Amino acid sequence: MAKHLQNPRLAKIHRSYTVEEIAILYNIHKNTVRSWIKDGLLTCDNKRPTLILGRQLREFLIRKRKKNKSTCPPGTIYCVGCKLPQKPVDNIVLYQPITDTKGMLIGTCPCDGHRIYRFISSLKLKQINLEFIVTKKTADEGLNNSC
Ligand SMILES: [Zn+2]
């Protein structure tokens, strides 16, 4: 499901927009645009009606999108089911390698057993160990990797 994320590329860099035009462009309420201005969307000063440069709008939406992606505080993983960052049950996650450098952390959401997962670089495993109790997948590999 698309999470009310506005496509930054809809904003044309070389034009400017009024609050109303942005509301129409993204099919949102004018108050939402005003809250973006409060959140740091830059406007052209001293002009009426308020004008926002397309370039500023685009940059703001890109920043906003990045922010949305990394809202999980340490020790949590985003649960797609709950739409919230959640602490895995018992703080235990399973590290499942995908390639030599990349893997997936899998945990269980405390809500009602959703699976929660996060892709990470294997280089970050040490840091991850501070946040979670990481177990490595051995069930399918027998005891060969028990060193
Ligand atoms: Zn959940």
What does this molecule look like?
The chain has 147 residues and is α+β, with helices and mostly antiparallel strands. The protein has 2 domains: 8-69, no CATH class; 77-136, no CATH class. Helix content is 27%, strand content 24%. It is built from 4 helices and 8 strands, in the order βααβαβββββαβ. It has helices at residues 19-26, 30-38, 54-69, 125-131, and strands at residues 16-18, 51-53, 77-79, 84-86, 92-97, 102-108, 115-121, 133-136. The strands form 3 sheets. A 4-stranded mixed beta sheet has the order 7-6-5-8, with helices on one face. A two-stranded antiparallel sheet has the order 1-2. A hairpin with a 6-residue loop joins strand 6 and strand 7. Helix 1 (19-26) packs across helix 2 (30-38). The longest helix is centred in the middle third of the chain and has 16 residues, at 54-69. It is elongated, with a radius of gyration of 21 Å. The relative contact order is 0.12. The model is unreliable at 141-147 (pLDDT under 50). It binds zinc ion (ZN). The site of zinc ion has 7 residues, from loops.
